[in-house]
Amino acid sequence: METGKPVTLLEARIVRALNCDLSPVFAGSKHEDLARTLCHIGQPVGVRFGAGMPAGTLRISYDARIAYESWRDGGEQAWQEKLENRCHQISTVLEKVQLITTRFDSVARYIG
After folding, report:
1. Residue 4 lies in a domain
2. Residue 1 included in any domain
3. Domain tally for the chain?
4. How far, in Å, CA of 111 to CA of 105, rounded?
5. What is the rounded distance in angstroms from the CA atom of residue 34 to the CA atom of residue 41?
6. HEC letters along the chain
7. End-to-end CA distance of the chain, in Å?
8. Residue 81 is part of which domain span?
9. Could you identify which of 12, 31, 98, 110 might form a hypothetical disulfide with 44, taking C-beta atoms 3.0 to 4.6 angstroms apart as the criterion?
10. 2 found inside a domain
11. Alpha carbon distance 83, 4 (integer Å)
12. Distance between CA 82 and CA 23 in Å, rounded?
């Protein structure tokens, strides 16, 4: 994977890797706990980039249903807690994506 380049559909295997315990790939490193974390996000979406080159994008959201249920089930305090929790989850997903890209070939071999 190249920094600044769009992710190809093939490289969209990152979504699969996000749902895997990758700690064996990062064994002994300071990132082992993050690699172990399972991150469940929406399915990748195929898009066209630039001159029509296919790319895969990751879908991460805080949708209206979550916001509504947060308010309905507990008012502002519950909404604030759920928002903070969701932001932490998104941060974890992005950190794991970044981690995966540091050893993409090894991760791809590990997940098959």
Report:
1. no
2. no
3. 1
4. 10
5. 16
6. CCCCCCCCCHHHHHHHHHCCCCCCCCCCCCCHHHHHCCCCCCCCEEEEECCCEEEEECCCCCCHHHHHHHHHHHHHHHHHHHHHHHHHHHHHHHHHHHHHHHCHHHHHHHHC
7. 17
8. 10-111
9. 12
10. no
11. 29
12. 28
Per-residue pLDDT of the chain (112 residues; tens, 9 = 90+): 556 666 665 666 788 899 999 999 999 999 999 999 999 887 777 778 778 777 777 777 777 877 777 777 777 887 888 888 888 998 999 999 999 999 999 999 999 8
Q: Map tokens 């600044």 to a residue.
A: 4
- Residue 79's pLDDT is 80
Residue 39 lies in a domain: yes
pTM: 0.76
Helices 64-102 and 104-111, interaxial angle, to 10°? 110
